[in-house]
Each structure stands twice: as structure tokens, then as C-alpha cells.
Amino acid sequence: QVQLVESGGGLVQAGGSLRLSCAASGNIFSTNVMGWHRQAPGNQRELVASITRGGSTNYLDSVKGRFSISRENAMNVVYLQMNSLKPEDTAVYYCGTGSVVPSDYWGQGTQVTVSS
After folding, report:
1. Which of 39, 52, 98, 110 has a CB 3.0–4.6 Å from the CB of 9, allowing a cystine?
2. Model confidence over 47-87: pLDDT tens digits?
């Protein structure tokens, strides 16, 4: 089992920045891939960014150039730096992790609201 605890959400104006953090504990051998997903009301959950233990990253097209994912393997922490935020980025953001895909284990979610 893996436990994920997120922090860093909040309310920000369009164009602003937020940094999300997610700390993993438990069976860290199951945390090869860590990622951030988001779900807006009425929408399906989508993968925003992911990063492997080796540092390979992937991003949703709509956040490329604005969001940056990073991780500290020694601390089992993953970050999502979100810049140039837009109202359409408003959603609940979930940290996820797994051996192959970042969706075997989930955090509780943190609200990000971007006002126009």
C-alpha cells in the first residue's frame, strides 16, 4: 500500500502561479511513476503530467510550457509547478502513483481555483 498526501492548492488569479506537493509513504517500490491528474465538474479525470523515477516526463498538451513536474526520489515527493494559470485549469488535482501508470494509488485531492 502507498499513502499519498497532497498540499498546495488554493485560489489564484489568472496568470498566477501555484505549486502542488505530494508526499508518498508506505511501499515506495510501487511508486515508479508519479503524476498529477485533475478533474473539473462534469469532466473526466485527466492526466496532467507524470514523471518516472528516472526523470522522464510527459505533459498534457494544454499545459505544456506552463506546468512543470519534478520529484525528489530520496524524499518520495513529487511537485507540480503551475505558471500562467488559466480559468480552465480550475479543478480538483489528484496525485497518483504506480509501478507502470500513475493511477494505482491516489491522494485525496486538492482544489485549484483560477479566477478570471
Report:
1. 110
2. 999 999 999 999 999 999 999 999 998 889 999 999 999 99
